[in-house]
Design brief:
Length: 437
């Protein structure tokens, strides 16, 4: 990439601004609000949420906590899939945002795991129940497979990121803060330039493994499988769930990358480093993934209202008449139409508009996943609790957890951007050649 020097890459590390401090305050503030509510939950239990057992007051035992878990896992999986695709397919145009996607994966997986911790009620149950049971239950328990594949993805992503960071730190060491030398020394243990070609091959194979695992084991596999194993919950079973979950993951991830890349470009004047062409390309991918998402939603609606079992038909009719669901679909459809329109008329493209639409897409996919969880539980195939009144609306405690995890992601990027380059050095090296196995 011509016209961009190494000093541009380390600009976030070398500078502080009022906007940075304001963003830091927002992130910490969101986390603080969540912690205040979470302490109340630890003290009084899950009764402070609107989650409840069917027979003890209506509503649902799973709600925003599980819906947000699926949403964050989807963002994480979609992010690393896109980063891996950049390397495997030689999509050099998107090299400037590849590491941002990897970092988003780490942050989103952390938030997804946090929601499981929150939803357990008593965090010590993970130590006394889940962890001891894992070695003997992983062979047949879908829940243990969930823990296994998410952990495996976290390890793969962290390894993937660490291997590429070593190359950059070695060549940018004179521009990095000496205060962090102990951290850099740990990251660079055993490094020599002779390892670069080997590392390139290792990273290629890790990327290949990530691409293979995604549809088979991760957001297209184990997680929808967990829900499909409960066919008594209307709308949860069916082979379409795997592709549907994966389409939502990719749609959400592209939206997240657009927002983060635009934020860094605006904050640090990275117009040359992350040019308009990157955002236009991401916009087209967002339009394509949104189209697949909407098509799979249509498949679920059609099979749910035409000659479907009574409870599934009822659940589907309730879903398509729910204003929140219609808003969610509308937000994704609006982003898709804008992306396709700007493909035909590039002069219509505006990064700020695309960022706003990406925020809408993230809100829409989150709403769809929460409704997926809630509607399935409220309209189950058994009539045991038909006479129990009650509905579900996310409580302030649950909403604070969502805001808190968003704050964690904001804080994560703010801190990481002061430690390592968030754009790979390869993105500005014209003489860099991909090494294939």
């Amino acid at each position: 990439m011509t016209g961009v020097d190494r000093d541009t890459l380390v600009r976030p590390i070398q500078s502080f601004s009022k906007r940075y401090l304001a963003a830091l305050a927002v992130g910490l503030g969101l986390i603080g609000v969540w912690l205040a509510f979470y302490l109340q939950q630890l003290q009084h239990g899950l009764i402070v949420t609107n989650l409840s057992d069917w027979g003890s007051g209506g509503g649902v035992p799973w709600g925003l906590y599980i819906g947000a878990f699926i949403w964050w896992v989807g963002i994480a999986h979609g992010g690393i899939i896109l980063s891996a695709a950049v390397r495997l397919l030689g999509m050099d145009t998107y090299q400037p945002v590849a590491r941002l996607a990897e970092l988003l994966t780490i942050a989103a997986l952390t938030c997804a795991g946090l929601f499981i911790l929150i939803h357990v009620g008593r965090p010590d149950r993970l130590v006394t129940s889940v962890i001891p049971a894992w070695p003997t239950r992983v062979q047949w328990s879908p829940l243990m497979w969930d823990v296994t594949v998410i952990t495996a993805y976290f390890v793969l992503t962290a390894t993937y990121l660490a291997l590429t960071i070593r190359y950059d730190i070695h060549r940018l060491r004179d521009r990095l803060p000496s205060l962090l030398d102990p951290l850099y020394n740990v990251l660079m243990i055993g490094y020599s330039e002779t390892e670069d070609e080997i590392v390139e091959r290792m990273v290629w194979w890790i990327a290949f493994a990530i691409i293979i695992m995604a549809p088979l084991l991760l957001h297209g596999g184990v997680i929808p499988w967990l829900f499909a194993l409960l066919p008594s919950m209307a709308g949860w079973a069916g082979g379409v769930q795997g592709p549907s979950f994966l389409s939502i993951a990719l749609t959400s991830a592209v939206s997240g990358i657009i927002i983060i890349a635009a934020a860094f470009r605006y904050a640090y004047g990275w117009e040359e480093l992350i040019p308009d062409a990157v955002f236009q390309g991401l916009s087209q991918w967002l339009g394509f993934f949104s189209l697949i998402f909407l098509w799979l939603q249509l498949q679920q609606v059609i099979t749910g209202i035409f000659a479907a079992p009574t409870t599934l038909q009822h659940a589907t009719e309730v879903k398509i008449s729910t204003p929140l669901y219609l808003v969610a679909i509308g937000l994704v459809a609006l982003a898709m139409l804008y992306a396709f329109a700007t493909s035909l008329r590039p002069d219509l493209f505006d990064i700020r508009t695309m960022v706003a639409l990406s925020v809408g897409v993230l809100a829409g996919t989150l709403a769809e996943k929460v409704l997926f969880v809630v509607e399935g539980l409220q309209h189950a195939h058994f009539a045991l609790y038909d006479g129990v009144p009650g509905a579900y609306v996310p409580s302030p405690t649950e909403l604070s957890a969502l805001l808190g995890t968003i704050g964690i992601v904001v804080l994560f990027f703010l801190v990481v951007s002061k430690v390592i380059p968030v754009v790979e050095l390869h993105a500005i090296e014209d003489d860099h050649e991909e090494v294939n196995p």
